[in-house]
Amino acid sequence: MDYVKRAFLYLRRRIGKTLLLVLVMTAILTFMLAGLIIQNAALTAVNNSKNAVGTTVTLSANRAKLFQQNQGSASSSTQTPPTGGFRMNEAIIGLNTAKKIASLENVAAYQITASASVNASSFTAVLSSNSNSNGGFGRMQGTDSGDISVSGLSSTAANSNFKNKNYVMKKGRGITSSDANTNNVIIEKVLASNNHINVGDTIKVKDSSSNVKSLKVVGIYQAKTSTDQTFGQTQDPSNTIFSSYTLASSLAGDAGKVSNVVYTLTDSSKEKAFVKSAKKIISGNLQLTTSDQIYEMLTSSVKSIESIASKIVWIVGIAGIAILTLILILMVRERRHEIGILMSLGEEKAKIIGQIFVETISVLVISLCFAGVFGSFFGNSIGQQLISQQNTSQQSLRSGFGGPGGGNSNQAGPNSNTAGSGSPSNSRALGGQMRQFGTAVTGNSQLNKLSTHVSIGTLLELGAFGLVIVAIATLLGAIPIISLKPKRILISE
Hints:
Elements: H1 2-13, H2 15-53, E1 56-61, H3 63-76, E2 93-94, H4 95-102, E3 107-120, E4 148-153, H5 160-163, E5 167-172, E6 184-188, H6 189-194, E7 202-206, E8 212-223, E9 228-230, E10 233-235, E11 240-244, H7 245-251, E12 257-258, E13 260-265, H8 271-279, E14 286-290, H9 291-334, H10 336-344, H11 349-400, H12 425-443, H13 445-448, H14 456-477, H15 479-482, H16 486-492
């Protein structure tokens, strides 16, 4: 074990070169650790998102088919289409159809949703700070949108915004299945405060036919988000009222029909069998979207970040091998006389290489400690920058397909369904899906930020990578030693 002692003596004697090697190794390991942290955080976010989505099948309108029908109607009609374009009604799912599918085997629960746009009658809607007072872009032309959005559902407990704590109940109770066929609603805290509305009060709105409807407030919730965008229109979330899906359908003039049904399955392995049975019940104007498709949309940005982090690890690893190999080759050249003396005294070449390996391993251990301190900081900074860029790109993509997700309106935008717009129908269909699942995308906290921290497992993984780099670099750097002859070294010296 003399070569081990010689390794530590050399590190102490050449403290300057040792510190330089520690600095280089720390830089390599820090960037590798940052990549590993981001990669592991992305994998955790993907797995958590998959668990959050669960095994679900969504029944919704087939937007591509409806768009084609609207185009056919426009081309066959001699009348000039309205200036604002066509209104594509997505509330075409009959309750009987929805409940018939719910009665199939393997359904654990289901959530029915519908939406309506109404105007406040006995109270005043909250004005968004981003709204245009001139009316030029404050509301889209050619639509019958009101100043209040009514989001109908089976229960608020199953809604993604309430599950993710983006919306929190403050007074009263939420909407439950017992509120079906009632006028019970819950309103946002700011809207309630501005109009002095309390739980138990009655408010009035004008529906799509300008009929005044009385609604009973059974709860008040608080929205943590400040704005909501629907088809490029900025809308204050305080103007969203939650009710049973039956009330929303009635207010929209679509009584007995809803726009979306999400079925949660008991056994994920029987998802294909369920879809096959459900397709026999629905018409061609409806479509079924599986949880795998939703999961892919939820995790597309995070998977991209995972890929970038993986490339960082590989690039830094390869660069680290190259840099360390070059440094070790230079070190060997400087130590030719020392190596020649050891070899002339009968020391084996393997032990000389082992001495260099021990020296490098010692530097690796010290560098791991420093990398653990700096890696978390760099990993968090790089990770948040990447997720911000990916979220911006994904938001732009959703906007390009007809508006961001999370909108509650059931009206189509002025350009989304106009004949001759030039956009393919499958893009319209994708836009509809992105809007349907946009709330889940933006509401999932795992996707809005990466939980980047240094764990023991990550440090062990980094240590394994570092050990491989050191081993390869040592072997490559020791090539000159293998070819050296003691006599030639000492004569040349």
